[in-house]
Every structure is written in C-alpha cells, then in structure tokens.
C-alpha cells in the first residue's frame, strides 16, 4: 500500500517528530524543576518586574497548615462493616444500641450513621475481657 499525495505519516511513525517532542518535554520539565530566581534588589528592569508579576499570578496559594495532632484521624464504619467486624447481625446491633449495650453511632446525615472504629474495637476488647 503506497501513500497518496497529501497523506502524512502518523505521529507514531514519525521519528523526527517524536524526537522533537521528547526534547521539548525534557526542556519543559527542566524549566518546571528550576527554582525561581529573585531579581536583584533595587532593580528597575521591566523584564524582572514582568517575571515577578507572572510568578505571583501563577503561584499556587499554600494551604493553611492544620494544627499538628498526635492522634490519627478516627475511622468511621458503616453498619454493615460494624456487623462484619463484630460478627453480629445488623438487627442484633440495632437491638443492642437501643438497650445501650453497644457503642452509639455518629449521625452523618438525615438517614446515615457510622460507628467510630476505635469504639467498636474497644467494645470487642471489653467483651473478650469479660469472659475471663
């Protein structure tokens, strides 16, 4: 099959284009990795002013640092997950919740609840300790 006039080689077959794109990508990566340079103090050079303006315009705002805590974030479990961990049925958990003998859930929405993972595990440890 020969090519007719006007047909171009696909990009995947064009080694020269591939080489140029690879080189452009390397140059771009190097530019992104390069730390920004600060213009000399007291410089009235309009290029430096333009560079500073562009840097400020495209600089990503840094998120506010959250206060450091030693405790990990609590994990939440669905009713089905709590049932699987405790090997109880959902109806048994609901019955025990009503009786006050099971950890109380956290209400997440109008019809959504979740259990705190550490509270479920503490309840399991209490049950194990109570059998001795």
Describe it.
With 132 residues, this protein is mostly helical. The protein has 5 helices and 3 strands. The chain has helices at 15-33, 46-58, 79-86, 90-99, 117-130; strands at 76-77, 106-109, 112-116. It has a 3-stranded antiparallel sheet with strand order 1-3-2. A hairpin with a 2-residue loop joins strand 2 and strand 3. The mean pLDDT is 78.
Short description:
The chain is mainly α. The protein contains five helices and three strands, in the order H-H-E-H-H-E-E-H. Helix content is 48%, strand content 8%.
Characteristic key phrases:
single chain, 132 residues, mainly alpha, elongated
- Round the mean pLDDT to the nearest integer and report it: 78
- Low-pLDDT windows of residues: none
End-to-end distance, in Å? 84 Å
Which structural class is indicated by helix and strand composition? mainly alpha
- What is the chain-wise order of helices and strands? HHEHHEEH
Total number of helical segments? 5
Q: What value does the Rg take, in angstroms?
A: 31 Å
Helix content: 40-55%
**Strand order in space, largest sheet:** 1-3-2
What's the layout of helices and strands?
Blueprint: H1 15-33, H2 46-58, E1 76-77, H3 79-86, H4 90-99, E2 106-109, E3 112-116, H5 117-130
Antiparallel strand pairs: 1-3, 2-3
């Amino acid at each position: 099959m020969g090519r007719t006039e006007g047909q171009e080689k696909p990009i995947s077959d064009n080694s020269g284009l591939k080489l140029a794109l690879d080189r452009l990508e390397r140059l771009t990566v190097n530019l992104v990795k390069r730390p920004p340079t600060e213009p000399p103090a007291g410089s009235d050079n309009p290029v430096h002013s333009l560079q500073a303006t562009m840097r400020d315009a495209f600089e990503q705002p840094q998120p506010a640092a959250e206060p450091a805590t030693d405790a990990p974030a609590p994990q939440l479990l669905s009713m089905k997950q709590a049932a699987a961990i405790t090997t109880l049925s959902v109806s048994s958990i609901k019955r025990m919740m009503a009786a006050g003998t099971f950890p109380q859930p956290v209400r997440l929405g109008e019809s959504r609840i979740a259990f705190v993972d550490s509270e479920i595990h503490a309840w399991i440890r209490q049950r194990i300790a109570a059998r001795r």
